[in-house]
Q: What sequence folds into this?
């Protein structure tokens, strides 16, 4: 365990959960109000397991969020750097949770929406948004999710969550969103 | 005097347009040329007792003022208001420093109207133009634009583009559940806006057919992007592509028979050309990077496009015959969405300099770049068909607005809207 993470945990700013093997994960948005004690769970093997654990505690709630075993929603918005489409480490960790759910529920489908900030040209941003959504799809695919369960739509800069023109707004708008159908 | 004010660059000439329910664009002239030609456009005469159906003198005066080429005499400063040749006293105008005078009058002619006008050279005491135009009530604004075009051409030697139209997108309630997108068309002065398409899903990348009768655009109305062609007069429209992935950046060829576009059905965004007659699709670029924003050369033999194949977005040109690709921009780390000018020798595009997005022009021979705008987040440049002005989108106080800059960067005006974000302007070809 990482000490600084533990401090963050006690400050109540971050929700933590233990994943397969070793990873400690911070989920930045939205911060839950109260931290929960570390759940004790058996380690889960990485890519496609031949035997699915019988205990299925993941579920989709009415908001369309995937709820993890600890009862907390798993992030489904993933953020990017300007003009980049590489996934950040926290996105990978969250996506592995989504991948597990999608593998175990092969009837489930997701649409991955790609977005950019307002800077740069609109059509280039449509292409860039598609790159971001495609990065999410490829990663899920690498974790064993079937292609037919996923589709990709890029809105480029057309659908900001924060329409202002500043660094903070731009950071929130450079994103890919995973939406369960 | 107007001239001093215009050259001071602080005077805002506000044109209040006919009241309407649509988002109106109003003109604010921010900067003209250093040495504008002194011109007086005398209010047009109307001999009837009722109010004239259209104020032609005002429309013409604001048209010509917007070009930045003229220092306009305000009607209140005129010593006389002649509407006929015999009432023009050159000495009156000369002592006011006016070089040219336009007079005119509107007459009823049965159901229709007649516009008489004449342009005079004050120093040579000579008539330069005299003409009579006829039209219905609904075409009076067009007639005013025709007069403006004639005067502009006589005094500058360049054809006027006042009778052209603008296409643009208005977005309202962005980042709320009530987002609305409208594709609109208006006169070049922002008047007479009409809605061509309204949707709760994004509309973008609208452009004209070369004959000005149709528009092509991308609409997300089905939940994903598709390319449509719409006939303006009838509203009849057709979805021309609906492939998996991106369907974007449509551009009609100079002969109007083909559409260049970007499709990502092959895995990466690449440039394709769709033949509208045969419906045959031809892939032009094939690269794992982003290729987008194609624009035709005037001869239809090549396309310029944006690609990040070198790591960052830069502008490239592909010869359609050979498939040969060459990179055109090297200065700066973001150059995109180029439009070639009709002379084929230069292009305008979005250029990032010190982190800020501007509109720039580049001479293709020398590679020399001239940054035209001083605002930030500037995008979507489109050139008037006479090559004189570039309209583009920018942001001001958190809102998207349209602005215009002359191709040499010396003249500027803005077209702020009364509501919503206005974006993606496209200047029409000559329409008559």
A:
């Amino acid at each position: 365990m990482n000490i600084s993470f533990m401090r963050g945990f006690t400050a109540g700013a971050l929700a933590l959960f233990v994943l397969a093997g070793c990873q400690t994960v911070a989920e930045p948005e939205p911060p839950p109000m109260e931290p929960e004690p570390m759940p004790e769970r058996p380690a889960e093997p990485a890519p496609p397991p031949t035997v699915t654990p019988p205990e299925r505690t993941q579920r989709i709630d009415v908001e369309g969020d995937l709820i993890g075993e600890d009862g907390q929603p798993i992030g489904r918005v993933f953020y990017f750097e300007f003009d980049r489409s590489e996934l950040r480490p926290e996105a990978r960790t969250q996506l592995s949770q989504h991948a597990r759910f999608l593998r175990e529920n092969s009837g489930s489908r997701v649409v991955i929406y790609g977005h950019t900030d307002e800077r740069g040209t609109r059509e280039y941003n449509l292409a860039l948004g598609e790159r971001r959504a495609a990065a999410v799809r490829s990663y899920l695919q690498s974790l064993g999710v079937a292609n037919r369960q996923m589709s990709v739509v890029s809105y480029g800069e057309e659908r900001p969550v924060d329409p202002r023109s500043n660094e903070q707004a731009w950071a929130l708008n450079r994103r890919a969103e995973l939406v369960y159908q | 005097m107007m001239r001093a004010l215009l050259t001071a660059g602080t005077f805002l000439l506000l044109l209040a347009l006919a009241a309407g329910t649509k988002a109106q664009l109003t003109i604010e002239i921010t900067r003209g040329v250093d040495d504008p030609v002194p011109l007086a456009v005398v209010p047009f005469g109307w001999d009837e007792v009722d109010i004239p159906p259209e104020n032609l003198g005002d429309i013409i005066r604001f048209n010509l003022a917007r070009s930045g080429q003229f220092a306009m005499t305000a009607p209140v400063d005129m010593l006389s208001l002649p509407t006929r040749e015999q009432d023009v006293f050159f000495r009156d105008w000369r002592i006011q420093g006016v070089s040219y005078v336009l007079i005119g009058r509107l007459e009823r002619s049965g159901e229709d109207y007649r516009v008489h006008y004449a342009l005079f050279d004050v120093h040579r005491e000579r008539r330069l133009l005299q003409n009579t135009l006829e039209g219905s009530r609904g075409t009076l604004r067009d007639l005013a634009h025709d007069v403006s075009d004639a005067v502009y051409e006589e005094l500058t030697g360049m054809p006027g583009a006042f009778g052209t139209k603008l296409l643009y997108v208005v977005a309202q309630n962005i980042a709320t559940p009530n987002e609305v997108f409208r594709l609109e068309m208006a006169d070049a002065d922002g008047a007479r806006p009409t809605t061509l398409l309204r949707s709760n899903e994004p509309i973008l990348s609208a452009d004209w057919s070369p004959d000005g009768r149709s528009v092509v655009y991308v609409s997300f109305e089905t939940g994903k992007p598709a390319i449509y062609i719409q006939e303006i007069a009838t509203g009849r429209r057709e979805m021309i592509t609906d492939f998996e992935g991106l369907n974007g950046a449509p551009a009609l060829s100079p002969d109007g028979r083909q559409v260049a576009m970007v499709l990502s059905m092959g895995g990466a965004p690449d440039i394709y050309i769709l033949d509208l007659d045969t419906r045959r699709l031809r892939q032009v670029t094939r690269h794992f990077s982003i290729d987008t924003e194609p624009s035709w050369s005037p001869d239809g033999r090549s396309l310029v496009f944006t690609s990040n194949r070198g790591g960052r977005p830069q502008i490239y040109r592909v010869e359609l015959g050979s498939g040969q690709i060459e990179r055109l921009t090297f200065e700066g780390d973001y150059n995109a969405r180029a439009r070639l000018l009709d002379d084929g020798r230069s292009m305008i595009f979005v250029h990032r300099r010190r982190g800020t997005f501007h509109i720039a022009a580049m001479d293709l021979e020398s590679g020399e770049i001239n940054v035209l705008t001083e605002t930030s987040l500037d995008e979507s440049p489109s050139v008037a068909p006479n090559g004189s002005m570039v309209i583009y989108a920018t942001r001001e106080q958190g809102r998207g607005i349209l602005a215009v800059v002359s191709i040499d960067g010396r003249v500027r005006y803005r077209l702020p809207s009364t509501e919503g974000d206005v974006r993606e302007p496209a200047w029409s070809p000559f329409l008559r």
Notes: The two ends of chain A are 36 Å apart (CA to CA). The interface with chain B takes residues 83, 118-124, 126-128, 130-131, 152-156, 158-165 of chain A (CB under 8 Å). The first strand of chain A starts at residue 15 and ends at 18.
